[in-house]
């Protein structure tokens, strides 16, 4: 989720300082505290005015009338997207600790994952979630597009295990005033079906994630968006299937956070982690919106999480790879009042290290 709010440099600095202080103290933040503890070079009255603007923009709010202000989910989102950089120092520290487990001939990848989970929990103070590498190598055998209604087609997919899946999709917009010739549509769908089968046959679902879009667009420019939707639908089963369990570490670490003082909230979260991992799996094994982005970690803040027990939490996750394909994921789950620059650095460094470890196993 992105937040489209325009802030000047002073407002950004005050938002950054407010969030940093709240992360450190878990107490609502007032203008006098910021003026005293941060080099903002402005008076408490100016800080108060800026905080009022940030509140009206939905980035801060007052839990009580007489209290200071705390960050909203939107405030944290701007903080993550615009105001911080991951901690390289902590990332290197995680790599150093993990490297000790790659030495020797008795290397065991699953044991490394368990150790990595414990190291991450200790360094971050939050819950660590790590999926075992997926071993499923389902490959596409045949694809067929069939017209089912004007402007709607069914995509039929057959895998190498002869499993069949069907998905109904919208074709590019059809004009009601000038309906297309059905025979022409059927002919185009057959050409598209042949094209997709020839390009995708034999590929695993994981490979579709890194498929070169431009290669598809060149021959069928008018169907570019439709073809992208086809590939998105094809990769969806990979993201939502529960092929492996999730290793959970650091629950005791999280319970020390003041946000989890209520027993009912803790029970709901523990039930999700222990009994409903199939709901959690597609959230942790999630690719970044932009595969070419320098920041590989995916950050879901508070209400951005669709599962109710997680809506007071932030999930930071990144996939690790084998042969350039995502096969597993590393995540940190903690309160929205999280040290994001540390969490992102830890998750990305660990994902990179697990990718390197898998290359040594192969």
Characterization of this structure:
There is one protein chain. Helix 2 crosses helix 3 (44-56) and helix 5 (88-99) packs antiparallel against helix 6. This protein folds into three domains: 9-83, Winged helix-like DNA-binding domain superfamily/Winged helix DNA-binding domain (Arc Repressor Mutant, subunit A, Orthogonal Bundle); 88-135 and 244-361, GAF domain (Beta-Lactamase); 140-240, Heat-inducible transcription repressor hrca homolog, domain 3 (Enolase-like, domain 1, 2-Layer Sandwich). Strand 9 and strand 10 form a beta hairpin. The model has no long low-confidence stretch (mean pLDDT 83). It is globular. By secondary structure, the protein is an alpha+beta fold. It contains 14 helices and ten strands. The strands form three sheets. It has a five-stranded antiparallel beta sheet, sandwiched between helices.
TL;DR of this structure?
Helix content is 47%, strand content 17%. It is of the alpha+beta class and 362 residues long.
Task: Output the CATH topology of the largest domain.
Answer: Beta-Lactamase
SS element count, helices: 14
| Secondary-structure class | alpha+beta
Residue share in helix: 40-55%
CATH hierarchy class name of the largest domain = Alpha Beta
Order of helices and strands: HHHEEHHHEEEEHHHHEHHHEEEH
The CATH architecture of the largest domain is 2-Layer Sandwich
- Shape assignment: globular
Q: From the alpha-carbon coordinates, what is the Rg to the nearest angstrom?
A: 24 Å
CATH superfamily of the largest domain: GAF domain
Please tell me the overall pLDDT: 83
Largest sheet: 5 strands, antiparallel
* Order of neighbouring strands in the sheet with most strands: 7-3-10-9-8
Number of domains: 3
Protein name: Heat-inducible transcription repressor HrcA
Organism: Coleofasciculus chthonoplastes PCC 7420
Family: Belongs to the HrcA family.
GO molecular function, one term: DNA binding
């Amino acid at each position: 989720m992105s937040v489209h709010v325009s802030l000047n440099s002073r407002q950004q600095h005050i938002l950054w300082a407010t969030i940093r202080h709240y992360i450190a103290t878990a107490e609502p933040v007032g203008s006098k505290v910021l003026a005293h503890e941060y080099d903002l070079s402005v008076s408490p009255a100016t800080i108060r005015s800026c905080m009022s603007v940030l509140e009206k923009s939905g980035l801060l709010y007052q839990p009580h009338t007489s209290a200071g202000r705390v960050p909203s989910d939107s405030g944290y989102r701007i903080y993550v997207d615009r105001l911080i950089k991951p901690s390289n120092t902590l990332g290197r520290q995680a790599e150093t600790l993990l490297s000790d487990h790659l030495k020797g001939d008795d290397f065991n990848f699953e044991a490394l994952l368990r150790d990595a989970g414990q190291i991450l929990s200790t360094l971050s103070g939050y819950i660590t979630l790590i999926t075992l590498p997926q071993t499923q190598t389902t490959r596409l055998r045949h694809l067929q597009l069939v017209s089912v209604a004007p402007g709607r087609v069914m995509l039929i997919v057959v895998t190498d295990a002869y499993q069949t899946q069907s998905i109904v999709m919208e074709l590019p917009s059809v004009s009601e005033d000038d309906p297309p010739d059905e025979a022409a549509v059927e002919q185009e769908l057959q050409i598209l079906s042949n094209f997709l089968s020839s390009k995708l046959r034999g590929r695993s679902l994981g490979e579709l994630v890194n498929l070169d879009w431009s290669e598809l667009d060149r021959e069928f420019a008018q169907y570019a968006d439709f073809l992208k939707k086809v590939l998105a639908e094809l990769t969806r089963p990979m993201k939502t299937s529960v092929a492996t369990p999730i290793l959970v570490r650091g629950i005791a670490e999280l319970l020390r956070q003041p946000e989890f003082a209520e027993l009912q909230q803790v029970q709901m979260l523990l039930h999700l982690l222990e009994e409903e991992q199939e709901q959690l799996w597609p959230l942790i094994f999630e690719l970044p919106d932009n595969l070419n982005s320098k920041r590989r970690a995916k950050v879901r803040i508070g209400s951005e999480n669709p599962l109710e027990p997680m809506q007071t939490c932030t999930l930071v996750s990144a996939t690790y790879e084998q042969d350039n394909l995502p096969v597993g994921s590393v995540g940190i789950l903690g309160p929205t009042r999280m040290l994001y620059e540390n969490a992102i650095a830890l998750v990305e460094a660990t994902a990179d290290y697990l990718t390197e470890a898998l290359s040594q196993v192969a």
